[in-house]
Amino acid sequence: MEKSIIKRNKIRKSRAMRVRKALKRNLTKPRLSVLKTNKHIFAQIIDDSTGTSLFGVGTRSKALKDTEFNKKSKKAAAHIGALIAASAKERKIQSIIFDRGRYKYHGIIAELAEAARSGGLKF
User: Fold this and answer.
1) Cross-strand partners of 57
2) Distance from C-alpha of 14 to C-alpha of 10, rounded to nearest angstrom
3) 84-112 burial string, b = 16+ CB within 10 Å, else e?
4) pLDDT digits (tens, 9 = 90+) for 45-98
5) Which of the two ends of the chain, N or C, has the fewest CB atoms closer than 10 A to its terminal CB?
């Protein structure tokens, strides 16, 4: 059983790195990275030239604590995408690279990306 868990984690890491290796070559634009767990979803903008996170939003944020967006759902993903786009506009970021990580561009991830696009981010 432990070998299967180790193998699954190794496959997940390699899938994520396969997606990210093309994205990290472009150091001129910040990267929008998405993390999805069983209960929550998080998104953050990362500057790869300095290796720092500029800002992030998630369903566990203080602003979303007592709202309907505090659990993982498509509505929450759309709201987080809109919040990321608004925060990026405040910091004068208009163009980013979307990093879906090891997840398919489908469902919650697609909702977050579409909401960020409709909020004014270009990727």
Assistant:
1) 43
2) 6
3) bbebbeeeebeebbbbbebbeeeebbbbb
4) 999 888 899 999 999 999 888 899 999 999 999 999 999 999 999 999 999 999
5) N
Measured CA to CA, the distance from residue 121 to residue 123 in angstroms comes to 7
Q: At 81, list the tokens.
A: 């995408």
C-alpha separations of 81 from 45, 89, 90, 102, 116 in Å: 11, 12, 14, 18, 4
Looking up residue 38, the CATH number of its domain turns out to be: 3.30.420.100
Q: For 6-15, b where at least 16 C-beta lie within 10 A, e where not — what string?
A: eeeeeeeeee
Domain count, the chain: 1
